[in-house]
Amino acid sequence: MRLDKLLSVAGMTRTEAKRAVAAGRVQINGVPARDPGAHVKETDVLLDGRPVTPPGELYLMLNKPAGILTATKDARQPTVLSLLPEAFRKRSPGPVGRLDKDVTGLLFLTTDGQLAHRLISPRWAVEKRYRAEIEGAICQRDIEAFAQGLVLSDFVARPAKLFSLGEGLAEVLVTEGKFHQVKRMFAAIGHPVIRLERLEMAGIALDPSLAPGAYRELSDEEITHLYQTVQLERTQ
Description:
23% of the residues lie in helices and 24% in strands. It is α+β, with helices and mostly antiparallel strands.
């Protein structure tokens, strides 16, 4: 790993890393470092006489607002990473799955790629709960259609649980997340979606204290729960 990258991952900006090297604060095998671009082993580097320890994995819950892309970067539009402070952005967390630009609500971001992959893999059938503002009202026939698995133009949706919350409002539990799937399912039963919000994923609900655009780190219990949900061993 490059020295400046190691120092950056450990919490410094690239500029701060270069200044630390220039000031003689960084040693490689006991010798003051001279080149921020030098390739090093983590165990060989000391900063102010102490080992450089990269932070552990990052796990975040974000209340995604409308108008934000679920992406790590885009040349023209704001992304979910733009809502995070620089200290988190430079650790390069990725979104767990995708919410359409106009969809709001719960989105996990993490640096653990294996966990993220399992949480969105159809194999693990992780449940997601959405609240939809729709045209019209849900009837028993609609509930049964969701439960049987809707036939869409290019695939058959897995059985889903649909709940009526009164005129123009419904909740749905799905275990997959294909492109525009929830919107397409409601459209297929004659109830186009006006607004859509994700409330829960893998049994973890959106923190009601998070305003749109706000985030927090997941608790230790929440992190452990996610690993257990997809049968992964937690090592940190």
